Amino acid sequence: MTFLDYAPALESTSILNLKPSYGLFIGGEFVDGSGSAFATISPATEATITQVASATEGDVDRAVRSARTAYDKTWSKMSGSERGKYLFRIARLIQERSRELAVAETLDNGKPIRETRDVDIPLVAAWFFYYAGWADKLEYAGLGPKPRSLGVAAQIIPWNFPLLMLAWKIAPALAAGNTVVLKPAETTPLTALLFAEICQQAQLPPGVVNIITGAGATGAALVAHPGINKVAFTGSTPVGRTIAQTLAGTETKVTLELGGKGANIIFEDAAIDQAIEGIVSGIFFNQGHVCCAGSRLLVQENIHDDVVARLQKRLSTLRMGDPLDKNTDIGAVNSRAQLERITEITDSGEVEGATRWTSSCAIPEKGFWFAPTVFTDVHTSHRIARDEIFGPVLSVLTFRTPEEAIAKANNTPYGLSAGIWTEKASRMLAVADKLRAGVIWANTFNKFDPASPFGGYQESGYGREGGRHGLAGYLMPSDWKAGAK
Ligand code: NAI
Ligand code: MG
Fold it and tell me: Is the pLDDT of residue 4 over 80?
């Protein structure tokens, strides 16, 4: 046994009490969907977890109508403090059921239990607690003395942080007085369906939250429904663009949180060992399925070799394997399609002339896996330096001066996140000021807080989620004409 060998420490799945199939959650109840049901699988084993319904256009219409009725009759008439009580109740139920939710998320998504248990689910509860506190204080949201809710919000979320993205969408929408129809991603619907049960447990008035499962066509039908007042989307830039086209010229409000190609900038005076940990969490956290990942490492030229050597040494200690094992650092890639996408872009890296290094970890036989990979000798024109890979792949570039670092960091069609590593606060502030990114971390990376706004520039989307700013996406000033439908 070497110092890296650990006895397995598997989290039990016995806490889960899953049904063999799930319907759509409309009007406070699970109802049958009209489309053909599909399986959600565990990407670590390819085993079916459960069957979920597929919502057709007719089902989407039912869900939107249910949300409208709940809005008109109940939710828009309720005081903020009453709405807040429901949100506090949901937050407490999430904490009570946190272990179950962590296991379900790990099973369905493939991410390590250490992450769902210590990051995803605690943040989900924190988001509901945070926005519960806002529900009766909307006059301080910066939109005038009596801001009003929009109506029915259509929310479409991706598979990388399934329950957390649900929380980012539903908590502010409900606090602001809207009702919602949410569509989880087709590969990770499980925790959204458990959340529907939590809504029942919290005795949330029927129709305030509706959850419809299905693939892209269901999402497209929801966006095109004339009865919605708002679309909030997190996912790929091409789908975001399609949504913006569908809604152009309508009164429907839109927020889009799309991709990224974040620069993590390491200056020569940085605390290197600390920076190595930040680089690792920046791109290898959640298998790199993170829109704000630090996927481009910009290293000052004179420390390049040292940083790369230390990074490779550190990456060689990461354990990839069963996501339910508490020792696991790197879990499974979420789907076969995503694995193919990662493989295709990384292959282009070698073809274009970059040097590939891959951690020599064992790859399980079943499931979708991609070992931590680092590319050096990367040029700004390479695809691996420009396209979002959305996998555990880091592209390393160098710079000589702060000006060059800034120019390279900003040389991207995206603009979601960036990181700065230096011991000099003055440099930190001066560089941060010139980076065109919505979130900039200094001497840390991938840290989230419900009070902090999050969002991007350019092709990373528009609108902000989180904090007081996140409320603006679900409210309008009282002197705006109501978007009644
Ligand atoms: P996607 O954008 O297709 O999926 C995201 C969500 O949108 C899912 O719920 C999906 O069912 C829905 N959707 C798909 N087509 C739609 C349409 N026409 N109208 C409305 N909703 C629709 O993302 P996909 O294909 O799973 O991933 C592709 C790439 O997108 C990834 O490799 C990654 O680069 C990027 N991505 C970025 C995310 C982020 O957090 N910014 C999240 C997921 C993917
Ligand atoms: Mg799944």
Answer: no
